[in-house]
Amino acid sequence: MDVSLEKVADPTLIEMGKNLKEAMKMLEDSQRRTEEENGKKLTSGDIPGPLQGSGQDMVSILQLVQNLMHGDEDEEPQSARVQNIGEQGHIALLGHSLGAYISTLDKEKLRKLTTRILSDTTLWLCRIFRYENGCAYFHEEEREGLAKICRLAIHSRYEDFVVDGFNVLYNKKPVVYLSAAARPGLGQYLCNQLGLPFPCLSRVPCNTMFGSQHQMDVALLEKLIKDDIERGKLPLLLVANAGTAAVGHTDKIGRLRELCFPSRHEEGLSTHAVAGWQAS
Predict the structure, then answer these.
(1) For residue 263, how many C-alpha atoms fall within 13 Å in the half-sphere facing its CB?
(2) Where is the composition biased (Basic and acidic residues) (predicted)?
(3) Which of 255, 180, 174, 264 is CA-nearest to residue 219?
(4) Cα–Cα distance, 174 to 154 (Å, whole number)
(5) Is 155 exposed, middle or buried (0-12, 13-18, 19+ CB in 10 A)?
(6) CA angle in degrees (0–180, nearest 5) for 42-46-51
(7) Of 19, 76, 123, 225, which is the most exposed, with the fewest CB atoms less than 10 Å away?
């Protein structure tokens, strides 16, 4: 990763980039020494012992980590090679280091930086997925975003939910429609996060006669929605697949949107296409 750091003004960032480059070079250039020592047994320095009186410098720590990664005497010589992570791997490692450095900034600088990052990424995502005035929500747990969408749908469809709470849900039970090709356990996770009973979850089978066997049966979904409305239930959310985890099957998103929104002036069933973790 031969990128010049001359244009970077922050000396801390320059030092961090150089240290990362030197550390990776030390690990990647250790293949020759690893192969020479491959037949040797563990030395006394590899055996756990009491804490030393003085600390270790960075070079010694990296060498120790290197020995732990490649010092197994039972390994074959070919398996002891250092993984070449490439330029993208260097960028990912630098991103982790940069994130740790940003967390040390004072509150005002951190707020200014995160606000700019949030606004830019939100704009990019809205343009990619053709959403107007969208809002990005970043989360660590891969299913947390879908639970957030469900909460927003509940607050949107039940106007008195903030005041009356779950009493409004009891009077008109919500229904969440989920494809049978969805990730196992996704429906149970949503019910647990939202505090809803499992009967609020309706699984929509995939096609059995016409179309892909991994796509949601639109005709059957339409029948389920009509039946639930006749029973006094409220169709709340439809979770479709925009690329399944297995081979990337995609539901008929356009047809599903037409089913959820029969008219542009009519409030319909909320739709959410699960991509991201489903596709990756």
Answers:
(1) 3
(2) 29-40
(3) 255
(4) 8
(5) exposed
(6) 155
(7) 76
Residue, of 133 and 9, whose pLDDT is higher = 133
Supply the DSSP string of 27-87, one letter for each residue. HHTTHHHHHHTTTSPPPGGGS--PPPSS---HHHHHHHHHHHHH--TTS-GGGGPPP--HH
The residue behind tokens 């709340």 is 236
Convert 175-211 to b/e letters by CB count within 10 Å (16 or more is b). Answer: bbbbbebbbeebbeebbebbebeeebbbebebbeeee
Question: What's at 226, amino acid-wise?
Answer: K
Whether the CB-CB separation of 38 and 75 falls below 8 Å is answered with yes
Asked if 244 contacts 184 with a C-beta cutoff of 8 angstroms, the reply is no
Identify the pLDDT of residue 227: 93
The tokens of 51 are what? 């804490």
Whether the Cβ atoms of residue 237 and residue 186 lie closer than 8 Å to each other = no
Q: Average pLDDT, whole number, for the chain?
A: 75
Contact between 177 and 256 (Cβ < 8 Å): no
Pairing of strands 174-179, 201-204: parallel
Distance separating alpha carbons of residues 106 and 167, to the nearest angstrom: 45
